[in-house]
Queue: 3 jobs
Job 1
Amino acid sequence: MTASDHDNPASTQSTDTLIIGAGASGLAAGWALARAGQRVTVLEAGDTPGGNIQSRRDEEWQVEIGPNTLMVKPPLYHLLEALDLTEEAIFAGEAGKKRYIAKGKRMFALPTHPLKAPFNPLLGPRSLGRILREPWVRRGSGEETLAQFVERRLGRHILDYLVDPFVSGVYAGDPARLSVQAAMPRLAALEQEHGSLIRGGFAAMKRAKRERRAGKEAMPREWRGKLISFPGGIQTLTDRLAAGIDATDGSTIACGRRVESLRSVAGGWRAVDQDGTTWQARHLVLATPAHVSADLLRPLDPMLAEPLDEIVYPPVASVALGFPSGVLAHPLDGFGVLIPRREGRRTLGALFSSTLFPNRAPHGHKLITAFIGGRQDPEALEMSDTELVRQVGKDLGDLLGIEGQPVWQRVSRWERAIPQYELGHLARIERLDQALEQHPGLSLIGNWRGGIAVGDCLENGQALARRILDGED
């Protein structure tokens, strides 16, 4: 639905739950509420729903502007079932299991099994010694950065060549700033519960094996831990959620509606958009980026805005490059390559997009999607599109054996890309939740809390819907 569907600036629209923001979190919450019989209105400032999830096709090239893959876990699988999307999903090819790390002018494949890790040439004998001593390292106390945690338990080399590139690839973040308890709570829990990452990892593997033998798996085995997409890209999922909301009597999505003010009223909440239309509901959900929610909430209660203002979103650019297969010496036989910061290359890493899924590039061509910028190099976004393409080509050229120019390219910029769960993040969320207790009927959700992955957002959105239906939120 577009803004023209509600073109009376003096009108007041009423609903049960009003959701501001049609990204993955807002759509999942809205879909679950509408499915349960609530009247739901979702307002989206942009032209289309989906937030950062945007799939684009240019003739025979298909790219993702935002997330490129979905990791299947039971909640996502059951959502796909409910949306009739399991038959449309496509699995990443077997080559996608191989992941490369750049070191010098070479790329080394990460070990595919924990027992092989100590003997990987990327790590070396010194790291092998640190890995063997890890079970006897004492537990930490208090909040730590991810860098402090990893260096304490596994040493500097593993931090530099495994953890730093991983953090750059997932968060576009800085391990010296990210909180291990907030950004990687399962890692921190392994240490606290088992006294060792290695012991904890083996315990988790044994538990999973017992559950498989007992037939307690929550989804078919062939889906377990798989990476998926759809023929039309990840946006297929958010489009299906949006269609489900719009197809439900009494519920709708209105795009092109930028909310400019909020206020609490008797029996609920009111929001006013840029055209002066008033939207009233018993329950209000803000499913917008932290800084957008902060701006809306500041006039209402500065205590709500302050923790949100502290959440950093670094800029990131994605650079999609299409090449004839013959100009690439490397077979691109993997998920992609991550580049440690200490290697001195500005590109964070690259996905081998046409290897992961079919029909991403024309026949006889390959598609690479690189990322640049992030928390450790925000200045990269000051480059022009031409300069970004040139920089990525320089950084990847010797690694992939590129011997020609791209025949197709697309640069996409996110000035505020991925929220950073930095030191103090859990305390910020606690302060926010305490302030929310003073505002019944108001909920906040987004990838700035509870996990940045699309799957986390979808799961958290549905969980919020259940709490609203149960009167708990």
Note: The longest helix spans residues 197-213.
Job 2
Amino acid sequence: MVNEHEHEHEEEQYITLVDENGNEQLHEVLFTFDSEEFEKSYVFFYPVGSFDDEEEDVDIHVYAYIPTEDGGYGPLMQIETDEEWDMVEEVFNTFNEDQEDEE
């Protein structure tokens, strides 16, 4: 069972990633969802300002996480198994189809 939690534009949420050099990069959350099968939550996000240039492809990241008690994202974890990637790709494709239907 997969539960999607889409974040409307009015409720923009952000994640700050810190690279190996200590540089902070701000990312906007596209959407999150929970998977009972893998007992994890997942977050899709992209660098802030990526959609400003419509001609460039947007680099969308996805990570697993276990929510914190206060509803935060907790530590981000890489997706490691093919089965988990297949599930994540299916959810993302469904999200894209739903977005196209709304346009």
Note: Helices lie at 82-102.
Job 3
Amino acid sequence: MNALFHNFLKHKAICPVEIGIRMPKMSKENMALICVSLGWFLIFSGRLSISTILVTIEKSFDINHAEAGLALTGMWFFYGLMQFPSGVISDLKGRKVTILASMAIFSVAYLLIGLSVHYLMLFLMLILLGIGGGSFPTAGIAMLSDIFKERRGKALGIQASFGSMAGFMPIVAPVIASFNWRLFFFIWAGLGIFAMYLFLRCTEESTKLPHGESILKRFVDGAAALRDRKILFIFAINLVATLSWIGYISFFPTYLIESKAFSEMEAGVSFAILTLGGFILKPIIGSLSDRYDKKAIMLFLMSTSAIATVLLVYLHSFITILGVSFALSASSAFFLVANSYLLGLWGERGRGGRLGFYRSLLILTGSPTSALIGFYAAKGGFALPFLVIALLLSIAALLLLMNIALERHARR
């Protein structure tokens, strides 16, 4: 039965014209890149839109920041939890099967979020969104790494830049929400189903599936991902970047509205710059990471983020915040550089499981960030949490600088 299903997935690997869209001839590799990037866009844009219209959702369910932060933490927790098992499954059953299952789950989750009538239902559907969305990135990154071996950084940069196109959503989502915030999630559910069909028809399996290997053995192999000191060090730096980014995308618009008296549109535009900046920067930074020292690029990104976060707290005008938002957008490129660095250290066998374990541990550790910021902000405001983020980024940058200096000294 399993073999029949895989044969079905392989059928018509090149996109059919019956979908009604005339497309120029394109290589299978580039088609896979487009399909994976589209899926990532739908996941990332949905998450950003939740943050953008969070104030409206809170009013709809009569909940406060703490309750909203708890729901977002639940989403992040399961988003992180699913990275590991989805990576192992993608190694054993295939990248394509895993990605299709993920798309089905997050499409249903979007639909049910739009149908939620009570906070508890919203809470559970955000968890379902975390499960579906969390099953996608590891398999998608592994698929692109299988295909683009020599241009891994560039491919991951292009994929990440598609996610950054979600930066339009902080402008678009409030417009849709002005009619009814639920409408947005109905639209995204439909787009998710279309993307799932497109991925089914336009991509092929990218990895050679093993025979007779146990899932337990692959889980053990994946869990050994952090035994290398180099990987453990990058994990610590990556954790700081994760805490920071979760903080930004969870409460950035809400912070600007409440602490700086921005309108929803001004906050949406600022948030759009935060995410859209990556659309320009990520392909460039990804290409640079294929040519130059990846740790030096990480150092630059962490330092820029630390300075920009301090400025975010102390500047108040709309124009200056736009500049700060663009500077902060560079921080999102850290993840693709770190992924490229790690995938270069790991062999192709078990790559999905190792990356999945790494990402699960990373996101699970960072998932309480939304709840912690939300609980503190409910009484004490957002300034102190963002200053703590700036301090952590500064420490991470200093550690990277010391590590680079020690490595260069050892090579002499």
Note: The domain at 26-206+214-411 is CATH 1.20.1250.20 (Growth Hormone; Chain: A;).
